[in-house]
Design a protein that fits this description.
Radius of gyration: 26 Å
Order of helices and strands: HHHHH
Strand content: under 5%
Number of helices: 5
Distance between the termini: 73 Å
Number of domains: 1
Length: 189
């Protein structure tokens, strides 16, 4: 089956909303895989004894700032590096959040369009309504609703998991920078 016949089949089953949902599902799968690889490369799931690359970067930059800058400038530099690292850890999460919100709405749009098609068929046939024609519109409506939820649920679960990891990393990053700044102020005093 080539790509065009696949999309034609998807369109025939659920209309434009279904095509958009299928595209969103591909984007969602890609984002989840990319984020998993991104976290592995950052060393997010390393043991407590190992240092991940983000935390090491924060520690190195903060220590460097403490050694070469005034106290106030060192704090500003540590905050800047920490915020850059937090942004790096959180990269891609907003897109998953948007997908988790939009996918059910696309499913609902498909539902409305399917019901419109069913009622148009009912209006066209008048008293001679064919249950098969009505069922086709209702079937399209239910299919797109289910597909929208099938995309939103994994996106929401992945977002919750990734967000939890990002929150933990944010706390670790801020704590490491603060500890270095506190330690440097003790040695100065």
């Amino acid at each position: 089956m080539d790509v065009m016949s696949f999309y034609t089949m998807i369109y025939d089953k659920g209309g434009y909303a279904m095509v958009a949902i299928v595209i969103l599902s591909l984007v969602t799968a890609t984002l989840i895989i990319w984020k998993l690889i991104h976290f592995v490369r950052l060393g997010v799931w390393l043991s407590a004894l190992a240092r991940n690359t983000v935390q090491t970067r924060v520690e190195t930059a903060t220590q460097e700032a403490v050694n070469h800058l005034s106290r106030r400038d060192a704090e500003a530099e540590a905050e800047l590096v920490a915020s850059e690292c937090v942004a790096q850890v959180r990269r891609g999460l907003r897109a998953l959040e948007v997908i988790a919100a939009i996918a059910p709405l696309l499913g609902l749009l498909g539902t409305v369009l399917g019901m419109i098609a069913a009622f148009q068929a009912l209006q066209t046939t008048g008293n001679q309504a064919d249950p098969g024609v009505l069922a086709g519109g209702i079937w399209e409506a239910l299919l797109t609703t289910a597909a929208g939820m099938a995309v939103a649920i994994p996106a929401s679960l992945a977002l919750a998991g990734f967000d939890s990891v990002a929150e933990r990393m944010t706390r670790d990053i801020e704590a490491r920078a603060t500890r270095i700044l506190i330690a440097s102020s003790r040695t100065e005093g």
